[in-house]
Design a protein that fits this description.
about 160 residues, single chain, seven-stranded antiparallel beta sheet, disordered N terminus, 7 helices, alpha+beta
């Protein structure tokens, strides 16, 4: 997939405080290897500082492929990942070196419509509950208008680094 990112025109967004607040606790639990639904620690270099930045992100796995979605828009981790697509993903001591490939808006709309929404029933229970809660509570446009959602919510596929 070598399509130009569609995010160049996306407005800058911010993750709500109620999501950021428990971040340090969640990162500590994930570092210790405690599984918290689909969440994994994702470390990518900052686009300005070049320093490693670690976030707890929901990694969606469907049909053997893994994705991360900027549910809250084009937030810092999305912009960092776009600038520096190499990343490390971990849960406890298990680490993987991956590369992020941003989907274009048409691909992201197809992902929401044809992969994510139909794939939710096949996800593990905790992942299914979290996905439905986020979609119904904050990102309902993923279901109701995937084309519009794709213009506001970046999607990255995570592939093995070569």
């Amino acid at each position: 997939m070598t399509h130009a990112p569609a995010s160049l025109s996306r407005p800058v967004a911010h993750v709500p405080g109620y999501i950021r607040l428990p971040g340090p606790i969640i990162r500590g639990l994930l570092r210790a290897g405690v599984p918290i639904g689909p969440n994994r620690l994702v470390t990518v270099r900052g686009r300005v500082s070049g320093e490693p930045r670690t976030q707890a992100l929901a990694v969606i796995e469907i049909d053997g492929r893994r994705y991360v979605v900027g549910t809250f828009g084009d937030v810092n981790w999305c912009r960092n990942l776009r600038a520096n697509p190499g990343l490390e993903m971990r849960l406890g001591g298990r680490r993987e070196t991956l590369r992020a490939v941003e989907l274009g808006t048409d691909q992201a709309a197809r992902f929401f419509r044809d992969v994510l929404v139909p794939g939710i029933p096949r996800m593990p229970l905790l992942t299914r509950i979290a996905s439905r809660a986020l979609i119904s509570g904050y990102a309902s446009d993923i279901v109701t208008d995937p084309e519009a959602a794709a213009t506001r919510r970046p999607v990255f596929e995570l592939v093995r680094a070569s």
